[in-house]
């Protein structure tokens, strides 16, 4: 393996690749923190890395996340993994995403092309509104 990596260094790229900081795509208002974990976004082994921003509005704290995948098919497959991971997952027809509970917190997750995005900690109606703002920023 080492010999292959020395002869073909591009084989190391997936191991060294860090996800891009996509915080520019997230609303800045009320944002308190941004993290870019290299893998297992939101602690989910099936997720790659991405960008997670924490927001504070009054006493309530919530998170918004995004990650760009290689193509829309990969995003769709991960959306099904989220459906399985969420307790009481229900389809949100206007987004083609899912809303449910994970670790005692409400989670809303959706795709837009090769993007996967969502919120953690917001009730369904608030998550829908925040999701619309977020989806408009993803191209």
- Write down the overall geometry: globular
Alpha carbon gyration radius: 16 Å
Name the helicity range: 25-40%
CATH architecture: 3-Layer(aba) Sandwich
- Cα separation of the termini: 38 Å
CATH class: Alpha Beta
The tally of helices reads 4
Total E-strand runs: 7
What is the element string, with H for helices and E for strands?
HHEEEHEEEEH
Poorly predicted runs of 5 or more residues: none
Strand content: 25-35%
CATH topology: Protein Transport Mog1p, Chain A
**Spatial order of the strands forming the largest sheet:** 1-2-3-7-6-5-4
Structural class: alpha+beta
On the 0-100 scale, what is the average pLDDT? Answer: 90
**Number of separate domains:** 1
Q: How is the main sheet built?
A: 7 strands, antiparallel
CATH level-4 homologous superfamily:
TM1622-like
Key terms for this structure?
seven-stranded antiparallel β-sheet; alpha+beta; Protein Transport Mog1p, Chain A; globular; 4 helices; 139 residues
Set down the secondary structure blueprint.
Layout: H1 2-7, H2 13-16, E1 31-35, E2 51-57, E3 60-68, H3 72-85, E4 87-92, E5 97-102, E6 105-112, E7 115-120, H4 124-137
Antiparallel strand pairs: 1-2, 2-3, 3-7, 4-5, 5-6, 6-7
């Amino acid at each position: 393996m080492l010999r292959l990596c020395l002869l073909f260094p591009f084989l190391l790229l997936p191991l060294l690749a860090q996800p891009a900081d996509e915080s520019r795509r997230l609303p800045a208002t009320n944002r308190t923190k941004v993290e870019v974990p290299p893998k297992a976004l939101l602690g989910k082994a099936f997720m790659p890395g991405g960008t997670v921003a924490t927001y504070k509005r009054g006493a309530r704290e919530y998170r918004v996340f995004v990650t760009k995948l290689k193509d829309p098919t990969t995003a769709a497959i991960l959306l099904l993994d989220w459906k399985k991971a969420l307790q009481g997952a229900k389809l949100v027809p206007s987004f083609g995403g899912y809303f449910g509970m994970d670790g005692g917190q409400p989670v809303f997750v959706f795709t837009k092309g090769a993007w996967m995005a969502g919120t953690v900690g917001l009730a369904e109606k608030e998550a829908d509104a925040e999701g619309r703002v977020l989806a408009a920023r993803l191209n």
